[in-house]
Amino acid sequence: MADETSAAWAALGISIAAMIIALAHAVQQYFTTGQLIRLRDSVVFGGLTGQGRRIWQMSQFRFRVMYRVPQIGLPLDL
Q1: S-S: 42 plus which of 2, 10, 49, 64, CB 3.0-4.6 Å?
Q2: 77 occurs within a structural domain
Q3: Residue 52: inside a domain
């Protein structure tokens, strides 16, 4: 009986440690992804960086960034 109890406590401790490690890994991945998006935005969009509006999408559990793009047109009679 004592062996079963100690094995159960050991399994519980290992599973809690694994859960904490998995949560820390997920948080680290979200922070890294956000940093890479910011770096990519500055290269791709230049001066528009930081002008985007972040919208949280709960269904995908992520932010979506919306940009306003200037509309440039030429007269049709050229």
Answers
A1: 49
A2: no
A3: yes
